[in-house]
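Anyone opening a protein record will find just a pair of labelled lines. The record below illustrates this layout.
***
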Amino acid sequence: MVVLVKGQKVDLTKTNPALTKIKVGLGWDTGSNGRHFDLDVSALMVNEAGELAGKEGLVFYNNLKSVDGAVQLTKDNRTGEGAGDDEEILIDLKTISSGIKKVVLAIHVYDGESKKQDFGQVANAYVQIDNAENGQQLHRYELGKDSLTGTGIIAGEIYLHNREWKFAAIGQSSSDGLAELCKSYHLQTSLDFFQKAPTQVEPAKQPATASINLTKVELKKTGDKINLNKTNAPLGEILVNLNWNQKTAKGFLSSVLGAGSSVDLDLGCLFELEDGYKGTVQALGNSFGNLSSEPYIALDQDDRTGAIKGGENLRINGNKITKFKRLLVYAFIYEGAANWSEVDGVVTMKQQSGPDIEVRLDEHRKGKRMCAIALLENVNNETMSVKKVVEYFNGHKEMDRAFKWGMNWSAGSK
């Protein structure tokens, strides 16, 4: 991977003619005081006349895909929490409309002026270009090293020169919003076009009776967070259920795995208790835990085929809320092809006094066997927050590093 500096231009396709699809990742961290920043990456598709190709040529949080399908925004993190890229744009260089000569990559602090936020307060912001087909890291531009200010920046441009695609690291600060930037490329539209819809989390409804819970809350986007219901009574048992659709391998998969091969998907969690005790609960290594003593978490069974209707369940002793600091719920493919789109997994958290909380594994990273699904954290020793993560890793060790758990890992089996 080449680390770029402001003003540097690099080739993308001339020396790598096989490169057709790239991923542009934007990442940043919360501030030192835990302050959240909602950064938004936008891709402006510009023609030879220097004009934006209409509203459809602006790919951003209110228009996730260009008309030709070549440019697509796939992630929108509104806080900066979590490891890896917070927002990603996929670009198919071969299918970009012939009239488009460059794709301008802009980043804005959403509603930065009213929040009194700018890039000078954002930590560790970067733009990275990867080969979207094999995951190879190509170029990285560390924005934080250029002391950028303002609420908006033009991070770089992917442009066509002598029929080859190149990238220029620009790092140009601006105090103008996305609407003003679009005007500079001759696109005039109403401000309503740029108003971001609020994060949609279904409100919890009152159950029909005290003993039956008919409601469900789905955390739809990475970073969405909700607290377990807080009552005067103890939390009671929290059930974390993993279920997936076991599909028979077909076509190419069957030739690799053998006809009828199944995927063994395992549920587990990393835990950190208030006394500093850290560990994992999972079938691998026969670490099934204990519900009545530390770590107050237990895995009830190991479904190796996906055929068990109830799936796999982690049980968390919510009555011991003061003992917990944080938990990271994850799933990993122990056996079978590392193709999450074939799994169609869903994790449901059931609580005694509130709605079910559902997190779907709706983003897929083929080839990576480990998925961090949800982060649970202690809230004032009264309840726990649940945040959707859905990030993919090569294994336990890589996931551990990303979430700074600090454990030592060795190979295991079951």
User: Anything to note?
Assistant: The chain has a mean pLDDT of 80. The chain has four helices and 25 strands.
